[in-house]
UniProtKB/TrEMBL annotation:
Pfam families per the UniProt record, alphabetical: CTP_transf_like
Function: Catalyzes the reversible adenylation of nicotinate mononucleotide (NaMN) to nicotinic acid adenine dinucleotide (NaAD).
Catalytic activity: nicotinate beta-D-ribonucleotide + ATP + H(+) = deamido-NAD(+) + diphosphate
Name recorded for this polypeptide: Probable nicotinate-nucleotide adenylyltransferase
Length: 230
């Protein structure tokens, strides 16, 4: 039987429990064999001059996944032409794993802008689209968006739309964890705690490398940070 492979692309600057939970729920609910995390080298849609280097974002993902046998991280997009277009990544993965059945996981916000993605219509000719939605409750908006993007799709039920060529678009409600990378970056800059929002090894890595607040890497700064009053 073909391996069922989830793909979660992201800027991951930094990775947090929201990303991990989305991958975990997709893994379990869709009976995937594994989920590959794909840090983007140059995000096509985010022009952030302060973007952390690929090697550091990759390392944070690697640390976050450690000990989970069905999660892995790939540096594929570092090696592909920039910016990192998802369709190009999928084409290469399809060649690398010829028999694999791919499930491209993305959040609802990303899905609402899907028509801005490079050659977006070709993406579900290579992979199923799995739209993870924090808390659920957006079924009507999801249905309207699927109709707009893929008028040729056929609705099976509120959660599942069939596309030509055997692929589908699925709506996957997941636990709502209102954590964002933007929040984490701001919190570090403002000396607010990020404990319990990202795995401890990622938190340690952020401090050790002075990510989001360069002066935090200096001796003693970490202790001051941990004890800083509200
Ligand atoms: P990100 O901010 O690191 O987030 C990665 C994914 O995790 C997103 O789909 C996001 O969904 C989801 N997520 C974030 N916080 C979450 C939470 N608390 N709970 C559950 N899910 C959460 O990455 P990104 O910068 O949006 O990039 C996503 C991927 O899309 C990348 O692989 C990028 O290359 C790709 N992309 C491709 C194109 C293109 O091909 N032209 C254009 C744009 C993006 P939400 O969007 O809902 O936050």
């Amino acid at each position: 039987m073909a391996a069922r492979i989830g793909l979660l692309g992201g800027t991951f600057d930094p990775i947090h429990f929201g990303h991990l939970r989305a991958a975990e729920e997709a893994y379990q609910k869709l009976a995937l064999d594994k989920v590959i995390f794909l840090p983007t080298a140059v995000p096509p849609h985010k022009k952030r001059p302060d973007l952390s280097p690929f090697s550091l974002r990759f390392e944070m993902v690697r640390l976050a996944l450690s000990g989970v046998p069905y999660f892995e991280v790939s540096d594929l997009e570092r090696r592909l032409p920039k910016p990192s277009y998802s369709i190009k990544t999928l084409e290469v993965l399809k060649e690398q794993v010829p028999g694999g059945e791919f499930f491209f996981i993305l959040g609802f916000d990303a899905f609402l802008e899907f028509e801005t993605w490079y050659e977006y219509q070709r993406i579900p000719t290579l992979a199923h689209l799995i739209v993870v939605t924090r808390g659920g409750g957006d079924e009507a908006a999801f249905a309207a968006k699927v109709r707009e993007l893929f008028p040729e799709s056929k609705q099976e039920n509120n959660f599942w739309w069939r596309l030509p060529r055997g692929f589908s678009v699925r709506y996957l409600p997941i636990l709502r964890l209102d954590i964002s990378s933007t929040f984490l970056r701001k919190a570090v800059k403002n000396r607010e705690s990020i404990r319990f929002l990202t795995p401890d090894p990622v938190r340690d890595f952020i401090f050790a490398h002075g990510l989001y607040a360069a002066d935090l890497a200096s001796p003693g700064a970490r202790e001051d940070y941990d004890k800083s009053p509200e």
